[in-house]
Write a structure and sequence with these properties.
With about 425 residues, this protein is α/β, with parallel strands linked by helices. About 45% of the residues lie in helices and about 15% in strands. It is built from 18 helices and 14 strands. It is elongated. The structure holds uridine-5'-diphosphate-glucuronic acid. Uridine-5'-diphosphate-glucuronic acid binds next to helix 10 and helix 12.
């Protein structure tokens, strides 16, 4: 199949590279010439494990190309995927669809044959209808099919998620779109990845419902963690105890400092707006959003509490800034609110993150960036793990004990067992445990 992928952001680049790896002929288009130049030079603009090798091998096999020229990229394509950003609209939280519609307008002008146009960007219900209207009203009398094919990729695990998906969702209004989409994903049918073919609006809704459900699941266990602390129970055993029930499932039950990233915060907000527009209250999602917002600052206060409720002039070492490991993404990272709370309380903050510091530094100019865990911990009154990078999972506590001023470890990701830490003379404070 010949595929054009519009947008070389996270979703576009990973999807384009994976489609080409299936053997399809893929051309990725982006208006940003610096991105395309970088890709031509073999540089990947985002941090995603395995993506550089995947791009390099498919480029050298001649299956993956990059361009800024939309019109020539569309030459003979079977399918065009729209994978541009849908950020929260300033002021009201609605998904900003201006990039999606701008692409639809350009496609209407540039497509000289009938093709299947698919939204991969996360778009509110009804967006596909509007894309179809633009294409077919402003096209050259051609009838294009418009489908929805939401992505379920986690940053840091995106290639695995793409190649071994739990499911593939195809939202279509006609047979042509279904046929083309099934053909594009055929290499995965051999792995027996379930395909759900449904109507377009339903596919759009599935994406939001999935993210809202996962955000709610995390928020639920976070609140249970707080209660565990209050009553002397252990949230990790509670999570295991409920997660072994197949109806609940083990995943996304790790209590932590609150969810962040480019998806859950934005998508829950957009879903709430859609619900309000239709006068359908989504109270559970609203409560999730509110609880998660409050949680991030409360995690900062937890660190202040570990300092005897007085952080003035104290040195806090933050390990991990990104919203989760294996990414350099700082969007809506809990670390932002945690650091601000600490600064507000008068602390001096030093941070270390394996990949995120370049992006984080301008977002938190008062924070000193250290070049290793141990440099960050030098003279610290408290060390706090905020992101569960593998590099923090086997800390040399003997060395850490020599570096710090006070031996207090706040572990907001529960990556240690208390005795692993306390035997080195550290006070250990985790999430949702009676030891906290
Ligand atoms: C999420 C979804 O997991 C993907 O399926 C979806 O495709 C993607 O959004 C999207 O809409 O594009 P992502 O934001 O990359 O993926 O990250 P997740 O791994 O889902 O983590 C999100 C946040 O939840 C992180 O801050 C993470 O630390 C937190 N989390 C996750 C927890 O606190 N506990 C958990 O048990 C799991």
């Amino acid at each position: 199949m010949k595929i054009a992928m519009i947008g070389t952001g996270y979703v576009g680049l990973v999807s384009g590279a994976c489609f080409s790896d299936f053997g399809h002929d893929v051309i990725c288009v982006d208006k940003d010439s610096s991105k395309i130049d970088a890709l031509h030079a073999g540089k990947i603009p985002i941090y995603e494990p395995g993506l550089d090798e995947l791009v390099a091998s498919n480029v050298s096999a001649g299956r993956l190309r990059f361009t800024t020229e939309l019109a020539s990229a569309l030459d003979g394509v079977d399918a065009v995927f729209i994978a541009v950003g849908t950020p929260s609209r300033r002021g009201d939280g609605h998904a900003d669809l201006s990039y999606v519609y701008a692409v639809a307008e350009e496609l209407a002008g540039a497509l000289d044959h009938e093709a299947v146009v698919v939204t991969k960007s996360t778009v509110p219900v009804g967006t596909g209808d509007e894309v179809e209207r633009i294409l077919n009203e402003k096209g050259h009398g051609l009838t294009h099919s418009v489908g929805s094919n939401p992505e379920f990729l986690r940053e840091g695990a995106a290639i695995g998620d793409f190649k071994r998906p739990d499911r593939i969702v195809i939202g279509v209004e006609d047979e042509r779109a279904e046929k083309v989409l099934r053909e594009i994903y055929r290499p995965l049918f051999l792995n027996e990845a379930p395909v759900l073919a449904t109507r377009r609006r339903t596919a759009e809704m599935i994406k939001y419902a999935a993210n809202a459900f996962l955000a709610t699941k995390i928020t639920f266990i976070n609140e249970i963690a707080d209660l565990c602390e209050a009553v002397g129970a252990d949230v990790q055993d509670v999570a295991r105890g409920i997660g072994l029930d197949n109806r609940i499932g083990k995943k996304f039950l790790n209590a932590g400092p609150g969810y962040g990233g480019s998806c859950f915060p934005k998508d829950t907000l957009a879903l709430m707006k859609t619900a309000q527009d239709h006068d359908v209250p989504l109270r559970i999602v609203e409560a999730t959003v509110q609880a998660n917002d409050l949680r991030k600052r409360s995690m900062g206060r937890k660190i202040v509490h570990a300092l005897g409720d007085d952080a003035r002039g104290k040195r806090v070492a933050i390990l991990g800034l990104t919203f989760k490991p294996n990414t350099d993404d700082m969007r809506d990272s809990p670390a932002l609110a945690i650091v601000q709370t600490l600064l507000d309380a008068g602390a001096k903050v030093v941070a270390y993150d394996p990949e995120g510091m370049e992006i984080a530094a301008p977002m938190m100019p008062q924070v000193e960036m250290a070049d290793s865990v141990y440099a960050a911990a030098e003279g610290a009154d408290v060390v706090a793990i905020v992101t569960e990078w593998d590099a923090f999972r086997a800390l040399d506590f003997g060395r850490l004990a020599q570096s710090v001023k006070q031996r207090i470890l706040v572990d907001l990701r529960n990556i240690y067992r208390p005795e692993e830490v306390t035997r080195h003379g550290f006070q250990y404070i985790a999430i949702g445990t009676s030891a906290a």
